[in-house]
Design a protein that fits this description.
Number of domains: 2
Order of helices and strands: EEEHEHEHHEEHHHHHHHEEHHH
Shape: elongated
Radius of gyration: 28 Å
Oligomer: single chain
Helix content: 40-55%
Length: 425
């Protein structure tokens, strides 16, 4: 029996056997390509914007190890270090994720965790220059404690040059080796398997599920005719009942498909975040993000083919897709961003440019909020506008349901009164 157990719920492969699980040092690096995306990343790191996967009751346990305590302060520090002329395609910042195998990190005491993160921060300062490390925040309000570090990638000439610092597979592999040796080993953490493809394979298999479009077919069944001169055929009522049952069954089938599509998308969001939290190289991270972007496009292209379901069900799925886009678009390449934008527009989702980057929302919500109100806002403001809109929708729905219930109650009372009167007629 193989010692490899595939667990799609975590988007990774787990090994079982007689020996205890190994504990790995995790270091990954991502490229931030615009100032808008840098602001979004800082808003997340400092919890100045909504962070759904963070426990608000534990946000006070987060720890700033380097830099100002606000996103605006770090942006000002970036402006002070950045060169006057910046290439259009220049990487504006590098974001490092420092963590470890969850079981090992949770087993550490608070002091040992802090020592590990401080040692990692010193290692990054030596690598990039202390003055270029702009921010370091330890997050303890998510599933596993980790640290996120933002660096301005300046070369010896003072130019933005991420390629020289972290470009190429060989540099990334050597960085993993050096980090595990210099930072991880003193804390019992080792390097992950080099050149491993396990995560890529399981993610491919996972994303292969529920990818076949379903076409709507609500043609009514033929009416059964009698064998002799039409005698013995279905009555109008019998045919109507059978046609109604057939349509109901097809509607149930399509509703189930839409529900599965929505559930698949939610599972993909969770799996994507798990993969982004566990991959140990930029190459693997970009591959996982690419697969997520591709799956988002495929899912978007399926939605217009589904008919016969309620508009509210469709809107719920469109909102899920928009939230998924907004959470991960900062990691998409320009080509991926353009492809997802085109697919989402085809589906019924608008993608607009706000102060801190691209933002997706269903066209129905866009029309309700109004383009003028969105202009000049950032993502946090847009989220607040949409939350207010949806709260108003729920209030109107509750009011409508209450009014309908009152009308139904009055109708029942009138019918009871008429029945009572007829008894004495």
């Amino acid at each position: 029996m193989s010692d490899v157990v595939t667990d799609f719920s975590k988007g990774m492969q787990l090994r079982s056997g007689s020996r205890p699980p190994r504990s790995f040092a995790i270091l990954r690096v991502g490229k931030i390509k615009t100032k808008g995306h840098l602001g979004a990343a800082l808003g997340h790191n400092y919890r100045e914007r909504d962070t759904p996967n963070a426990d608000q009751s534990r946000m006070g346990e987060n720890l700033v190890l380097k830099g100002p305590g606000t996103a605006q302060g770090v942006m000002e520090a970036w402006d002070a270090r950045a060169p006057e002329k910046i290439r259009k395609n220049a990487v504006h910042a590098l974001e490092y994720f420092v963590g470890g195998s969850p079981e090992k990190v949770h087993a550490m005491g608070r002091d040992e965790q802090n020592n590990y993160f401080r040692r990692a921060l010193d290692w990054l300062k030596d690598r990039h220059g202390a003055e270029n490390v702009l921010s370091a925040v330890v997050h303890r309000d998510e599933t596993t404690p980790h640290m996120q570090v933002l660096v301005i990638p300046l070369d010896a000439r003072g130019k933005l040059n991420a390629r020289e610092l972290v470009g190429g597979k060989d540099k990334l592999r050597q960085m993993q080796t050096d980090f595990a040796r210099d930072v991880g080993q003193p804390f019992g953490l080792e390097r992950g398997q080099e050149r491993s493809r396990a995560t890529h394979q399981t993610i491919q298999e996972y994303y292969g599920r529920a990818s076949t479009p379903v076409e709507a077919d609500f043609s009514l069944p033929e009416r059964r005719r009698g064998a002799v001169m039409g005698l013995g055929g279905e009555s109008d009522r019998e045919w109507q009942e059978r046609a109604s049952r057939a349509a109901t069954e097809r509607l149930a089938h399509l509703t189930a498909h839409l529900t599965e599509a929505s559930g698949t998308l939610r599972r993909e969001m969770e799996a994507t975040e798990a993969v982004l939290g566990q991959t140990q190289t930029e190459l693997a991270r970009e591959r996982a993000v690419s697969e997520a972007a591709n799956k988002l496009v495929l899912t978007a292209l399926q939605i217009p083919q589904i008919e016969g379901v309620t508009e509210d069900d469709k809107q719920d799925l469109l909102r899920d897709m928009a939230r998924f886009h907004n959470r991960h678009v900062s990691h998409f390449s320009d080509m991926q961003a353009q492809a997802t934008k085109a697919a989402l527009n085809h589906t019924g989702i608008a993608v607009v440019e706000l102060k801190d980057g691209s933002y997706a929302l269903p066209w129905r919500d866009f029309d309700a909020v109004g383009g003028k109100r969105l202009a000049g806002t950032d993502r946090q403001d847009a989220d607040a506008l949409l939350n207010g809109l949806r709260q108003a929708e729920r209030s109107r729905q509750h009011a409508t349901e209450a009014m309908q219930e009152r009308e139904a109650r009055k109708t029942r009372e009138r019918e009871r009164g008429q029945d009572s009167g007829s008894d004495w007629g």
